[in-house]
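F.,

This is the one I mentioned.
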């Protein structure tokens, strides 16, 4: 099944939406692309880069006559945006998002759709620690995975369109229950980000004389582990609020393991420490062997 999007609206022109628009443009799969941003500088940069043809500061104005609407904004804003644009959608319009929290967002957005319009929850597992349309590029999604979270009410043609859109950008599609998605991402994405933020804060709170030496001698391990702590704080604040229950579950599991590790280090239990580290190494090696995306291929 081929497709062509006559008019696409991107609400929140930044890294994610800008990269998808560029990927579709390269393959001549989209006609007019319009974008919405809060800051004039973002609209001007998107126009300068050729990511969009027109820029707006009002989402409900931008979606008029658009057949595909991509919402690429912090997760706490997705439902209010859908509520705002719903009365202005043309019949047959498909709305999707890129949020990393899906459960309640999907249920609420789906309920807001007018007759003949559709919402399909989406979450591309891709990105950078740097945000903004200036960081966008057409190959961002090459080799990535995108999770779609349809419900029993999702129209087949709407799901198929969103699947084709992401596949055209180079992403592999996974279909998943929205609530299950939130538990999986709490473990694989949300927990690591919170750990990265927290370790930087722990080091920042050390006494001044020690802290200066800590950061002075920080090497590639510190750089690699804490890279994601450069991510947008607003985005991660909102993710914690929207996926609170699943994140707390994972933090509590991590706390138990951290207490066990603390105990074994305190006791000088070499055998137990070796077992913890060997199990972790074996698990990571196995995952890398099975997952070419994590291997960077």
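My design for it:
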């Amino acid at each position: 099944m081929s497709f062509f999007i006559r008019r696409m609206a991107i609400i929140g022109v930044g890294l994610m939406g800008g990269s998808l628009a560029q990927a579709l443009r390269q393959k001549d799969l989209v006609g007019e692309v319009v974008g919405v941003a809060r800051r004039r500088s973002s609209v001007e940069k998107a126009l300068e880069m050729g990511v969009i043809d027109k820029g707006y500061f009002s989402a409900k104005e931008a979606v008029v006559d658009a057949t595909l609407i991509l919402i690429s904004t912090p997760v706490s804003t997705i439902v209010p945006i859908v509520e705002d644009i719903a009365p202005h959608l043309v019949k047959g319009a498909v709305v999707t998002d890129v949020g990393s929290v899906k459960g309640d967002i999907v249920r609420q957005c789906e309920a807001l759709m007018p007759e003949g319009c559709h919402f399909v929850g989406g979450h591309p597992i891709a990105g950078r620690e740097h945000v903004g349309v200036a960081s966008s590029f057409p190959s961002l999604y090459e080799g990535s995975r995108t999770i779609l979270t349809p419900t029993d009410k999702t129209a087949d043609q709407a799901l198929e369109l969103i699947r084709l859109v992401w596949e055209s950008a180079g992403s592999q599609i996974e279909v998943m229950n929205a609530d299950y998605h939130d538990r999986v991402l709490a473990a694989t994405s949300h927990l690591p980000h919170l750990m990265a933020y927290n370790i930087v804060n722990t080091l920042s709170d050390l006494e001044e004389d020690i802290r200066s030496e800590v950061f002075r001698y920080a090497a590639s391990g510190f750089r690699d582990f804490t890279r994601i702590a450069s991510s947008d704080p607003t985005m991660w604040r909102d993710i914690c609020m929207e996926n609170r229950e699943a994140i707390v579950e994972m933090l509590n599991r991590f706390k138990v393991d951290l207490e066990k590790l603390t105990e074994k280090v305190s006791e000088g239990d070499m055998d137990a420490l070796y077992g913890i580290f060997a199990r972790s190494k074996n698990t990571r090696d196995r995952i890398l062997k099975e997952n070419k995306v994590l291997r960077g291929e």
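The two ends are 28 Å apart (CA to CA).

Talk soon.
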